[in-house]
Amino acid sequence: MRKVFLTGLMAAGMLAFCGRAWACEDDLVRGMDGNFTHGLVNIVTGWYEVPHQIHKGYNKGIGDVNESPALSRSAGAVMGTFRGASQAVGRTGWGVIQLGGFWSRNPNTNREFRPLLDGEYSWEKGTKKEFLCPTFKDGWNRMAPRMQRGFRNIVGAVPEIPGQVVKGDRQEKNSLKGFGKGVWFCASRAVQGTGEFVMFPVASPEENFNVPFEEIEGWDAVHGRYNNNVPPK
User: Fold this and answer.
1) What is the Cα–Cα distance from 36 to 42, expressed in whole angstroms?
2) Residue 130's pLDDT is what?
3) Considering 18, 46, 62, 121, which has the largest number of Cβ atoms within 10 A of its Cβ?
4) Are 219 and 162 in contact (CB under 8 A)?
5) Residue 128 exposure: Cα atoms within 13 Å on the Cβ side
6) CA–CA distance, 40 with 101 (Å, rounded to integer)
7) Domain parsing of the chain, residue ranges
8) Over the chain, what is the mean pLDDT?
9) Are 23 and 211 within 8 A, CB to CB?
10) Nearest to 130 by CA among 144, 114, 109
11) What is the C-alpha to C-alpha distance for residues 28 and 36, in angstroms, rounded to an integer?
């Protein structure tokens, strides 16, 4: 994985000096900055999710035992401990991905998945994204697709290289730039896909910060389906 991180970083750097400036250059710079900053902060402060969620659980209590406020708050604190552990692992783990892979492209959004982090930062109250939405089955149906998307990105990583080479030659008569993009996109899908596949049971950020992949699947460019990944407005 270390080699993948370094390969993607080198490919992104090569593209910065290859050909004309991209129209989305500013978005890429902002995205990389957002990834790096959030990654660093999430690694350093991920642990705070545990006491923060315990505090939130204690204050909210458990509705089923509201007739006994002390029991309700105690139960809420216990539930907050488990939720805090999940949120802390997710925030810290995704912080590593964001920091180490700050250069990587990413999927459009995670908002349709579960579980999700409550807030952008660990100290924010945020909004609780219930896993029971409204049932456990519904929550699972929004968890499994994250693992599936991760697997597709792992499988689709290598096809990005020949796909982007052909795309670069056809669209810009620049297969070298296409090769650079292909290596970059390949490494990006490998990083993002591995993160989603391994960490699908724990909470992730609701949104991603860098520019999304140009194609929905890694093999789309090979089949001539160019630029079909239009981010939702």
Assistant:
1) 10
2) 84
3) 46
4) no
5) 13
6) 11
7) 2-223
8) 88
9) no
10) 114
11) 12
pLDDT digits (tens, 9 = 90+) for 165-199: 999 999 999 999 999 999 999 999 999 999 999 99
Counted residue by residue, the chain has a size of: 233
User: What is the per-residue pLDDT across 60-76, written as a single tens digit (0 to 9) for each?
Assistant: 888 766 568 888 888 88
As a whole number of Å, the end-to-end CA separation of the chain is: 33
Q: CA separation (Å) from 36 to 4, 11, 23, 100, 124? A: 17, 17, 22, 8, 19
pTM of the predicted structure, to 2 decimals: 0.85
Q: What is the DSSP letter of 213?
A: P
How is residue 63 annotated by DSSP?
G
Closest CA to 27 of 233, 211, 184: 211
Distance CA 90, CA 55 (A): 19
Beta-ladder partners of 204: 116
